[in-house]
Design goal:
Blueprint: H1 4-11, H2 18-36, H3 38-43, H4 45-50, H5 52-73, H6 79-86, H7 89-99, H8 107-124, H9 139-160, H10 167-192, H11 200-228, H12 230-234, H13 240-251, H14 258-274
Helix pairs in contact: 1-11, 2-5, 2-10, 2-11, 5-9, 5-10, 6-9, 7-9, 8-14
Amino acid sequence: MWSVNYVVARTAPGIISPHVLALGRWFLAGLILAFISRSELWRERQSTLKVWPQYLALGSLGMLICGAWVYWAAETTTAINIALIYAASPVLITLGAVMGLKERFSWRQGWGVVLALLGVLHVVVKGQWAALSQVIWVLGDGLIVIAMVSWAAYALLLKKWSSPLSSTARLAATCLGGSLVLLPFALMEWWTTVHAEWSGMAIILVVVAAVFPGVGAYWAYSFCQKTLGASRVAASLYMGPLYGSLVAWLFLGESLGWHHAIGAAMILPGIYLASQKAPTQD
């Protein structure tokens, strides 16, 4: 579901501006989630309002920076640069979970992270490792670096800040916080952009982004992290380039190659090792 965002990001330039797209995505996602969890949100309204700064912080990290800024970066940087930079986020999450959240992490899990990371790099450089020396850095790359660090912070804070809310209700509250943070930026873009913001294609992009990489992917990630821990779930992000390649093949007409198969042969076992529960004693 997350890989659908690759198609949205590549299609959006010239159709809808980054912050307007992100606001539409998260406001719609928030409405869907709030409707599903309306009874719980009303019951826990007082406890939720007491920690409202947490939801503004999570919304800023997960919806403003990791949402709008990624769409913004896609206007100037390349897909290979985005994939290469984002490949480091599970490593940051794992290190933060081990050092900050005191989660146990075995050497076997560590080797799984390394194997999966190598598989990701093999996919994004298309099996041509010399391409690493040809990467040209632009403004969009800096935005992706910030987004990558921001996602790691979002994932760790989501685990650190306990909540009585279910994954659905908590994500609904986070969407509200993100929408509030995004609103002034979206309004500024609305008045300054030269594009027609609400064409039929723009509406389709907002709905698709809200349902699949919005409600679906974020809810699943929050649920799995609450159940399994930040470090184990972070390894699943390594599958992004694989699914992204499949989505690009299905919807954008891009070709698949042997580098995808070789990368999968490294990523899948790596994720299996990294996602195993750490033993009591290594």
